Amino acid sequence: MTHATTPASHSAITNPLLHTQGLPPFSQIRPEHVEAALDETLAKSRKELEQLLEADMVPDFENTILPLEDLHERLHRVWSPVSHLQMVANSPELREVYNRCLPKLSRYSTEISQDERLYQLYKTVAEQNSPSNTEDDQRTQLLQHALRDFHLAGVDLPKDKKARFKQVMEDLSGLHAKFEQNVLDSMSAWEHHEISAPRVSGIPNAVLEVAAANAVEQGKDGWVLRLDQPTYVAVLTYADDDRLRQDFYEAWVTRASEQGPVGGAHDNTHVMEDIMALRHEAANLVGFRNYAEYALASRMAGDINEVTEFLLHLAAVAKPAAERELAELQAWVGRPLSPWDIGYYSEKLRLERFSISDEELRPYFPLPRVMDGLFSVMEKLYGIRAREQHDIDRWQNDVHYYALINDADEEIGGFFMDMYARPNKRPGAWMDECILRRRTNGEIQLPVAHLVCNLTKPTGNKPAQLSHDEIVTLFHEFGHTLHHLLTRVDYPSVSGINGVPWDAVELPSQFMENFAWDPDVVRGMSQHVDTGKPLPEELLNQLEASRVFQSGLQMVRQVEFSLFDWRIHSEYDPAKGPRFREILAQVRDRVAVIKPPSFSRFANSFSHIFGGGYAAGYYSYKWAEVLAADAFSAFEERGLFDREIADRFRQNILEIGGTRDIGEAFRMFRGRAPRIEPLLAQAGINTLPPDNS
Ligand SMILES: [Zn+2]
Fold first, then answer.
1. Disulfide-capable partner of 683 in 82, 486, 551, 613 (CB 3.0 to 4.6 Å)?
2. Which of 180, 470, 477, 655 is catalytic?
3. Given CA atoms 161, 166, 171, 177 in this order, what sign does their dihedral have?
């Protein structure tokens, strides 16, 4: 390998990934640069880390923590463009080298998080550090975060327990992958072949075209409908044939279980039991009573009861609304409905009540006009403008770059905007960090973000036209973007979205979604592509009214998932095992309005919590939504674009990164603790307690 002997100064010239000044030179990055750049950076980091650990000096923030922040930031600089390109401009070569590099990265991060000497350094610095001003406060928080994360990674355990903790974590990641694999395998093990046209009536053409192609591939007539998510949703929502919907429902809710059409073949039951036992053991090893407590150590929610009570309260107020919505739906259909009927008839009722379709709305929302609307919200709230810059290196021609300019005409950050779907781009929408804010030699390195969507690229000379859902998504991701860009924290590990408790990280994004529903904002960003007219008031009213359609049913469903996740983790008892079915039955008794049949095994494919990610954290969706709705209600009380309240939101939420207690910061912004009522009002749910109503 030549790169191992190439001097750093030389390879920095030839390897664009090692060019760590300014914006990444995206167009020059090739798959062959990736591994060489990563190897060189990791080797350099390990060497410098070793020097730091062996240095004969009294460790302090300047001589120890800042260099460590620099190491972290340099690695981010090298890897961020790679992981970004892997998502937006993938190729088999890039994917291959990316996958080869991932274990190297995870080995490095495990080394760091389990290094006792490093932990001791942070401890020593933390002991001398006594905050006397805001700057010191940020440093204190950084040190506290680092010490907490070391502890949660088992660094301070005795040798045998430490080894066991490491083994448990490795086993868990294998089991999470196994869980996901079983779900996928059980989905590909089932399909439905149909030759009768009346039986596929109602299913959208786009889905049928795929199904017809599947049939041709297998040398069959008609349609082969597979059990993937889009097909499942389309069948349950649109298929006129009751029996077809029922077949799909049974196959879906029994995935990876001992029940249903492929029952037993890819059963996750034992995988789930092992996952629960190991999570519980890991939590015990580092001193927590259960995995829910372990998870709470880095969350905003205070204790187990607080989350349980929060969910039960939501259930109590939402359940009467959900019951009413279900009764209404059944009265409209004229008979009691089975679980596989609900989605289908709900869609019919929705169409009858609100005669607006995506296709009718789209022409009113051309992308340039929507962007103007979004930027004008930002300018009115924070006095910040977006100024497009054309001379920027990009990975794709239709990507735009904007600098953010404050009211003193200074540049404060920037973002790339990649809006259109492409074959080599991951689906969905997201914000990613391109460059982290930090102070280096007295200078501020400005943060840069990636704002990514997957709109259909327009053909001909008309701009892309957005559905209202897509507009809400754009505002959501722009909320994350502002959180990253408006941070005032100079230390990468706690700036922007870093170090923010996970149950609060969706606050800035869901907060921004609310503006996409405000009638004035919607009116302002609508302009029909042909007529130039704004959205007619009639359509605007229908759009607004449709926001709360069946919101009670949606809410109890989310609470059911959250409470199940929360209780299996917080009530786990090694002597009794996970008691999945028992707990689920209790949760459903208390919360659910639609009772699934006894063969349902939804937990066996609940990837959010058994595939990793959201374990003991599904409640975060609702938790952050409460904060976002309550924050927005402060703006509604004061006037949507009141600068004083916007400044307060910016200073207490958007600027602080992970350097302040978020509950405390929220109280500073709101003048009180968060309340649940604004979310309920927004969802059109009566806020009186059920026994008073
Ligand atoms: Zn989000």
1. 551
2. 477
3. positive
Tell me, what CATH number does 338's domain have?
1.10.1370.10
On whether both 231 and 284 belong to a single domain, the answer is no
Distance (Å) of CA 486 to CA 30, 507, 569? 32, 15, 36
CB 566 within 8 A of CB 292: yes
Cβ atoms of residues 520 and 324 within 8 Å = no
The two three-digit tokens of residue 689, written as one number:
């307690």
**List of residues 6+ apart from 152 with CB closer than 8 A:** 286, 294, 297, 298
Q: What is the pLDDT of residues 155-172, one digit of tens each?
A: 999 999 999 999 999 999
Q: Report how far ligand 1's centroid is from the alpha carbon of 427 (Å).
A: 15
Write out the E strands in 43-119: none
CA distance 438 to 441: 10
Q: Are residues 204 and 138 in the same domain?
A: no
Q: How many CB atoms neighbour CB 127 within 10 A?
A: 9
CA 485, CA 490: separation in Å to the nearest integer? 12
User: Residue 8 — pLDDT band, cuts 50, 70, 90?
Assistant: very low
Ligand 1 mean position, distance from CA 400 (Å): 21
Instruction: State the distance from the centre of ligand 1 to the C-alpha of 18, rounded, in angstroms.
Output: 30
Question: How far, in Å, is the centroid of ligand 1 from the Cα of 469?
Answer: 14
DSSP state of 4: T
Please give the torsion angle defined by the CA atoms of residues 60, 64, 66 and 70, in that order, rounded to the nearest 10 degrees: 180
- Neighbour-count burial for 205-236, b at 16+ CB within 10 Å, e otherwise: eebbebbbebbeeeeeebbbbebeeebbebbb
Do 68 and 94 belong to one domain? yes
CB distance 141 to 126 below 8 Å: no
Are the CB atoms for 545 and 684 separated by under 8 Å? no
Q: Is 306 a catalytic residue?
A: no
Going from the Cα of 476 to the center of ligand 1, the distance in angstroms, rounded, reads: 6
Phi, psi of 418, deg, nearest 5 = -115, 100
Please, which residues have CB within 8 angstroms of residue 596's CB and are 6 or more apart in sequence? 253, 339, 588, 602
**pLDDT (tens digit, 9 = 90+) per residue, 459-472?**
888 999 999 999 99
Distance from the alpha carbon of residue 315 to the mean position of ligand 1, in angstroms? 23
pTM over cut 0.70:
yes
The count of C-alpha atoms lying within 13 angstroms of the C-alpha of 106, restricted to the half-sphere facing its C-beta, is 10
CA distance 535 to 524: 9
pLDDT of residue 14: 86
E strands, 356-505, are 385-389, 400-405, 411-420, 430-435, 438-440, 443-445, 448-455
Boundary of a domain, candidates 598, 618, 638: 618
Alpha-carbon distance of 313 to 296, in angstroms, equals: 20
Query: Are residues 18 and 117 located together in one domain of the fold?
Result: yes
User: Which of the four pLDDT bands, split at 50, 70 and 90, describes residue 687?
Assistant: low
Span 326-341, average pLDDT: 97
pLDDT band for 357, please (50, 70, 90 cuts).
confident
